[in-house]
Give the backbone structure.
Amino acid sequence: MNLADRSDASAAGVVQHVALNIRRIGRVAGAEIPGLDLSKPFGDDVRDAILAALNEHHVLSFPDQNLTDEEQTAFTMRFGEIEGHVAHDHDGKPFPVVHVVSNLDPSGKPTATPRSHGNYFWHSDKSYHDIPSLATILYAIEVPPYGGATQFANMQMAYDELLPEMKEIIEGLNVVHSWEQSRRNSMNKPATQEQIDARPPVTHPIVRTHPDTGKKGVYIGVHASHIDGMEWHEGREILYRLTDLVTQPRFIYTHEWKKNELVMWDNRCLMHRATGDFPQDVYPRVLHRTVIRGTKPY
Ligand SMILES: [Fe+2]
């Protein structure tokens, strides 16, 4: 079925895309694709259908998976180059390409003291890179019985609904994104000199064009430091105001995790954050994360 023919069938609930069943699960983003075993190889037609669904729905959930790290890596690499990570684990070593996102302390017990607060702030993954990530993939190993959702804000929808006055203010502006400033913005321990040297500040347009669909979306988040060429506080004021506007509840999809699901989202048109709204010292929340490298924003 052609994507352009989708709307009528979508209202009926289930649509075939080549080999895929796609069920919309959110108004601003989100679709579930049951019936695919991601541990098995699949053809380019299925990969292309997944990418088309990602461009349309931005957040894809593949329920009932059973994946090793190697299988998750192989799935990730079907969509591009896999990313390393700048952050460090408890023991100070860089994360491997499949790294564990969890609330477990070094002894494996749930803890309410997170290793980093950065995930609780709206962001687009790795926007502090000159070439940020295309998509992030999380595979749910353990999830709490309630809470612990991830929220996604649709930056294209939010951009479309900005008042013309605000669009005029931000037109043509560029934002400096910085790992060092991100650590300050999120009340984390300061970045190490080694991290600062490895991740110098980069500049991206404040309004980003999606390379596949041509749609425009706001591109900011906790890694944003200031507006290039503008007085610091004036730029920060615009970033705060814009963040409030684009993260209104009507632009947000909240994803409640299910054990054994794999979720893939498009960092080119979404911001996201973890909610942390469960007793973190009681229930484990463990997800395996991989990231696909993207292209330079424009
Ligand atoms: Fe993230």
Summary: The chain has one domain: 81-298. The pocket of fe (ii) ion is lined by residues 119, 123, 125, 272 (CB under 6 Å). Confidence is low (pLDDT under 50) at residues 1-17.
